[in-house]
Amino acid sequence: MLAAWILRDFATPILHKIPWIVPPGTSADLDSYFGQQAVYRVSMGNFLFFGLMSLAMLGVKTRGDKRDLYLHHGNPLLKFGLWLLFTALPFLFPTPVLDAYAWMARFGSGVFLVIQMIILLDFVQCWNDSWVAAGEEDERWLYGLMGLTVGAYAGTLTLAGLMYAWFKPPGAGSCSLNVALVTLALLLVVGCSALSLAPLARQGSIFPSACISLYVAYLCFSALQSEPRDYACNGLAHRLTATSGSTLALGMLVTLLSVVYAAFRAGSNTALFTLEGSEDGDAAGQRQALLEAGEGTSAGLDGAPDAAEATRDAVTGATPPPKPDAPSAPVSYNYAFFHLIFALASMYLAMLMTGWGSQAQEKDRIDVGWASVCVKTGAQWATGLLYMWTLVAPALFPDREFS
């Protein structure tokens, strides 16, 4: 990410001297074109690196697999060298190859966005279930849940008020597009909240609805913020003209770190995603035992098993699950999927840096342009509708297990 950022903003004089990186015409904005090419090439290098790592990790099921020991968890210097090689390799490719990759990255970025939505929905639902279960013994957890719910809805309404104030500035005309986007986002919030309380939603709860409502409002705000700076109705951009470059850079860094967090969380979430068929009962039980014990802990890894456990197993004839670092222990998440998520995140990075391929961004800015506005608006509605589907699906398909 840092390499793409630096090359996009400062490497134009160097890229201009590479003969096979040819601008599409004499009228092209050379700074914009070469900045876009730099981002695509760094992104493609990361995609190739993580994509090949994903292929190399296919079929790894136990910690004793040599690919786990020597490639996934080992040899960091070797992997860093391979990453440098793959980052430099696309700078040798002709422009048509990068153009084809850019179109492929649009699709891959959409997949990454959908995965982000699923991760968010799973996170807030698990949070709600955990605190409700804890509230059965201590009602303070329920009060905390209620306070967070009120806070989330308060944040949603506050964001809505700020959007009406900032994106319909005085003297800019009706700004009907911005007003419509904010109003429709509020209607989506009302729809999600009302459906979660309806009898049809058997597993509905107001706290997940509040979190989704706040996220929908944030996506709407982010979409309006992505409008071009010269658009009269983007009052926030006019307010930020005097903002220091360090503040803009900090906002960009926060955005990029959120992509890293989403990639880590999605890549290691075995409960939601997998590349291969379902496990048999023994493998699933061993995996669950390892997850409950906590992979990577030092307890019992270096010495003999606990005497009480050994005596109990000898009497009952039970076979204990393998220790987390034992060669026969199953891996705690899907390594191939982990690297695939980072390959998709590399594509998403290219779209953020170039306004979804529409233009290169100004220095210290990402994800600006009408294409970004459309993508974020679509993500907002996809998130709301996906959440509504999770509420009505158990009633529509009573024979399926949704727990």
Automatic annotation (TrEMBL):
Residues 297-326 are annotated as: Disordered. Pfam families: Serinc. The keyword Metal-binding does not apply. GO terms for cellular component: membrane. Keywords: Membrane, Transmembrane, Transmembrane helix. The chain crosses the membrane at residues 38-60, 80-97, 103-121, 142-167, 179-198, 205-224, 244-264, 337-358, 378-397. It comes from the Eukaryota. It is found in: Membrane. It comes from Edaphochlamys debaryana. Its main location: membrane. It is a multi-pass membrane protein. The keyword Transmembrane helix applies. InterPro entries: TDE1/TMS. This is Serine incorporator.
